[in-house]
Amino acid sequence: MDKILDIDNVDLKIISLLNDDAKTPYTEIAKKVFVSSGTVHVRMRKLEDMGIVKSATLNIDFSKLGYDISAFLGIYLEKSSLYDTVIENLKQISEVINAYYTTGNYSIFAKIICKDTNHLRTVLDNIQKVEGIDRTETLIVLEESINRPIQFFDKTGKI
Amino acid sequence: MDKILDIDNVDLKIISLLNDDAKTPYTEIAKKVFVSSGTVHVRMRKLEDMGIVKSATLNIDFSKLGYDISAFLGIYLEKSSLYDTVIENLKQISEVINAYYTTGNYSIFAKIICKDTNHLRTVLDNIQKVEGIDRTETLIVLEESINRPIQFFDKTGKI
DNA sequence: ATTTTATTTAGATTTAATCTAATTTATTTT
DNA sequence: AAAATAAATTAGATTAAATCTAAATAAAAT
């Protein structure tokens, strides 16, 4: 039984609306989806139980909090078998907020957030020190031009 | 007047707790921060007014919704002056959920989410068709090993 | 020291979340 | 196709939280 079959347009519409603003009351979601608020509750509990909706988080403007630099890091390992241990070490560095195993030249692809260039320098130093990391390439984010949630479609168009 | 000076550890602690679970009732946040729930409200309104907290969104397991492939794209432009118009065109492609202006070799660095390899193929085709794009490099995400919110620190340690 | 200003709080009111039982809708069986 | 069963949805009641207001406290300025 395919999980995706258990998901209908009501579910997707609810996810879509809450993705725009996770604090929207279920009563309001209910009106927009043309069901009762009870149904919204039931559907959301189902989505949470299925692990589809994992949590709700804030969308924060980090630069306004003094975290002015975010950057992507392409990390080259000495041996790709070191992946797991390097990831464990990167978890110890709190500025690393994402890390991925990707196809392409990099062994690990990561995202970091820092306060300023000095902070960035320190973080890069700490990352270079991690056993098994050969070298890194840094892509500093100068502008975020698109940042939006996924949009769902069915045969009839946007949900 | 520096905005960051208006933010104290109470604010950061509130942001930190709500970042873990944006649906946590303010009454519960209040207990953990040792202030009244009214104060949590006031602080959150301040943070929203200052544009620091922009919104709350869901953390969704896209693979369970049938979106099995996410990928980063390094995009090379014919001329870097085409940045703005290319971004406008990328906004029309709903699978593009992030796009950045970054240092490094790429003119644009983007993230896309697709259902399967067929869908990825279509999306890549559509992106290649965008006027001004020279070529792209695709980094397909095979595993997300770290995904967490930023952690705040002051002189005394983690907030 | 006194006034002014800002922040926090307790308590009241409004609003929403959650639960339950009943109804409706859909599915299966005969 | 009709009856029986199962599943989903709803209205309404209860519980809990958000929001507002006015008073109290604390901080800053004169």
From TrEMBL, chains A, B:
Residues 7-68 form the HTH asnC-type domain. Coiled coil: none annotated. Keywords: DNA-binding, Transcription, Transcription regulation. This is Lrp/AsnC ligand binding domain-containing protein. It comes from Belliella calami.
